[in-house]
């Protein structure tokens, strides 16, 4: 039986990070795979030259050249684009979706569901770390030779029993909701695309953005970066947080007005895995505030989630060519609001 043809763009570095040896071996056994022979990503022009005849295209973090009209005109057999990473907007445009992918019935798969595992785990960890002030306690012991800092309180509201405000029922947001189930929390959800009934089925209470900030002990942000969400969280919302409340952002820095955040930081507990720009300037006040724990965009890093991406990419090809629906397929009708 003739195998389906796959053009594989990622470099060896990406392959070793995302695919377990077993899954990559299976990929090459089940499909006729042409692997990128170089140590660098192929250009758009190079892809356009060779894509003819291939039924599937695999892209990745280091292998996402723009899929232009020239590429698509030459992609005469293409049925599925399998992105072994997260957002597909790095290489796809609405124009390409409307003029080529939708009319031809070409499926686009994204590994964003799998990335959510690592980010959600990190989010829970940041909630625990930040509410407990563990970094501040450890720094005090190391830098002063003392034991308990008189300036750091203990016995405050931690994760258990807290009111948690989740911004966006995205892939990460939904997994965070699942991971919070054992913690006996009250969950508030702000997401204009989710109905009150859907929110209830997720175990949350749907509220407006200001009410979420007013009622929450901990706010965790999982909204995509779109024109609609740019600086969605600003001074009016941050001022509603009670003193000592916790804010976690593992989505995108652009969602929060960082100038307003710095102004409120003196009375809050904040952990940011993302900033705008990234990294922040060396003299950025985000780096200086004692109440802001700044991390270098690592929430999505981790072997478990990485290998889940490779596993899901392989399964997407299997399902597509078997005539089954592809889990993780991009909904083209919602392309404009995707991260």
- Please report the first level of CATH classification, the CATH class of the largest domain: Alpha Beta
What percent of residues are in strands? 5-15%
Mean pLDDT across all amino acids: 95
Which shape, going by the Cα principal axes? elongated
Please, what is the CATH homologous superfamily of the largest domain?
Answer: NAD(P)-binding Rossmann-like Domain
**Which consecutive residue ranges, at least 5 long each, have pLDDT under 50?**
none
| Main β sheet profile | 7 strands, parallel
- The number of helical runs is 14
* Distance between the amino and carboxyl termini: 39 Å
Question: SSE order, as H and E?
Answer: EHHEHEHEHEHHEHEHEHEHEHEHEH
Q: What share of residues is helical?
A: 25-40%
| Rg estimate, integer Å | 22 Å
The CATH architecture assignment of the largest domain turns out to be: 3-Layer(aba) Sandwich
The count of domains is 2
Enter the CATH topology name of the largest domain.
Rossmann fold
């Amino acid at each position: 039986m003739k195998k389906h043809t796959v053009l594989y763009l990622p470099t060896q570095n990406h392959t070793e990070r995302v695919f377990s040896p077993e899954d990559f071996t299976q990929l090459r056994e089940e499909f006729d795979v042409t692997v990128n022979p170089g140590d660098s990503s192929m250009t758009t022009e190079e892809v356009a030259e060779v894509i003819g005849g291939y039924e599937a295209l695999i892209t990745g973090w280091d292998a996402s050249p723009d899929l232009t009209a020239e590429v698509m005109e030459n992609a005469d057999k293409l049925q599925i684009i399998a992105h072994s990473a997260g957002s597909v907007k790095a290489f796809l445009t609405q124009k390409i979706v409307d003029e080529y992918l939708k009319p031809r019935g070409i499926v686009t798969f994204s590994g964003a569901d799998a990335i959510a595992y690592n980010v959600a785990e990190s989010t829970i960890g940041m909630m625990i770390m930040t509410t407990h002030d563990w970094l501040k306690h450890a720094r005090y012991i190391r830098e002063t030779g003392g034991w308990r800092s008189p300036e750091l309180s203990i016995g405050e509201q931690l994760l258990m029993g807290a009111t948690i405000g989740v911004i966006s029922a995205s892939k990460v947001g939904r997994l965070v909701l699942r991971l919070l189930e054992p913690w006996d929390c009250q969950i508030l959800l702000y997401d204009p695309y989710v109905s009150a009934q859907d929110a209830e089925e997720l175990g949350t209470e749907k509220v407006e953005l200001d009410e979420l900030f007013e009622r929450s002990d901990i706010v965790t942000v999982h909204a995509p970066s779109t024109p609609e969400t740019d600086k969605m969280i600003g001074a009016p919302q941050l001022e509603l947080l009670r003193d000592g409340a916790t804010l976690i952002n593992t989505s995108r820095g652009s969602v929060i007005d960082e100038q307003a955040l710095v102004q409120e930081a003196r009375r809050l507990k904040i952990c940011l895995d993302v900033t705008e720009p990234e990294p922040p300037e060396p003299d950025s006040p985000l780096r200086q505030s004692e109440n802001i724990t700044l991390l270098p965009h690592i929430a999505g890093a981790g072997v478990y989630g990485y290998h889940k991406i490779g596993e899901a990419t392989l399964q997407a090809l299997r399902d597509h060519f078997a005539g089954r629906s592809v889990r993780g397929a991009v909904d083209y009708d919602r392309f404009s609001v995707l991260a």
